[in-house]
Amino acid sequence: MLDERKVSFSGVQPSGNLTIGNYLGAIKNFPEFTEKYKCFYCVVDEHAITVRQNPAELRRRTYETLALYIACGLDPEKNTLYVQSHVPAHAELSWILNCYTMFGELSRMTQFKDKSAKHADNINAGLFTYPVLMASDILLYQTDVVPIGIDQKQHVELTRNIAERFNQVFPDTFTIPEPIIPAAGAKIMSLQEPDKKMSKSDENENAVVRILDDRDTIIRKFKRAVTDSESEIRMSDDKPGVSNLITIYSCFTGKTVSEIEKEFEGRGYGEFKLAVGEACANRLAPVQEEYRRILADKAYLESVMKKGAEEAAYYARKTLSKVRRKIGFVNL
Ligand code: AQP
């Protein structure tokens, strides 16, 4: 029977050990789409190689990221979970869409500017065309919604522009996708430089809380988080460190900002940071336990990858052959 549900697509790069930014901004929100949408969640290993990766680590992290998806509540029977490089249609569509994407558009992408500053010795073409591959990921599945953190919003906007441009020449080819950005947790900041996004590839371990950090490490990192010279626990633009901690605490406890400000009125930063660390560790403990159980079964993970790749390839092929036919390639 034809699946008439709308489509949700998102992905995470296995480019490092995932952080609570990846969790709160993206993965934690994926399961809520499962019933209402046809869901594709991908481990985007092809994106990861836009910066140099150690091959053994990339392979290991690909399994780990998939295990985390499942541990965070994504049932492989109800969602299509797969690895990007197992579905060659992503790379194939990407080449075609490169020819419908402008150099100027790609030059304006903030992530490209940030990453080329960070990897000045390796500003490769893949880093530059990364958003076109991401557009292909999304458009291949006729995606309606893309749950992401705010840093990826610009890439989804570009995806929409590429799709609209293509549809203008070849009507009714692609569904135009909408980004879905969570109300809270869309941009978790570094614990050491709170004006900078928390990133899994940050070299300063104290800046980043990883989903798999143990309880003591989580609490220690929050204790060391940069705040300010006042002592008031209040959400404010001039208090980025404290505001970030309030956001994290709110995401992990479900309390509102004003409830949190009231809870910690007259109490010091030390007490507050400990509470944030404990809330985070408590919430992640069951995810970590489930993750360890799943990761131990490599054969199971490979069966999920295989089934996911077959399902994804089925849908991807439909879009790709439509695109090939429309642009004038010979289909044998
Ligand atoms: N700090 C963050 N706060 C909220 N959401 C975040 N995301 C990333 N960082 C934060 C969201 O996580 C999803 C997966 O991200 P990605 O792996 O595709 O790449 P990224 O956005 O480049 O994430 P990182 O952690 O910063 O990776 P590196 O260091 O490798 O570049 C996306 O939905 C993203 O918005």
Question: Characteristics of this structure?
Answer:
332 residues, mainly alpha, Tyrosyl-Transfer RNA Synthetase, 2 domains, three-stranded parallel beta sheet, two-stranded parallel ribbon, globular
Describe this structure in words.
The protein is mainly alpha-helical and 332 residues long. It has two domains: 7-181 and 298-327, HUPs (Rossmann fold), CATH 3.40.50; 205-292, Orthogonal Bundle (Tyrosyl-Transfer RNA Synthetase), CATH 1.10.240. Helix content is 51%, strand content 7%. The protein contains 13 helices and five strands. The protein has a three-stranded parallel sheet with strand order 1-2-3. It has a two-stranded parallel sheet with strand order 4-5. Strand 4, helix 8 and strand 5 form a beta-alpha-beta unit. The two termini are 27 Å apart. The chain binds adenosine-5'-tetraphosphate (AQP). Residues 12-13, 15-16, 19, 21-22, 24-26, 148-149, 151-152, 186-188, 197-201 line the site of adenosine-5'-tetraphosphate.
Topology (SSEs and partners):
Layout: E1 6-12, H1 20-25, E2 37-43, H2 45-48, H3 55-71, E3 80-83, H4 89-98, H5 103-107, H6 110-118, H7 125-139, E4 145-147, H8 153-169, E5 178-180, H9 215-223, H10 240-253, H11 257-263, H12 269-295, H13 298-327
Parallel strand pairs: 1-2, 2-3, 4-5
Helix pairs in contact: 3-12, 4-7, 4-13, 7-8, 9-12, 10-12
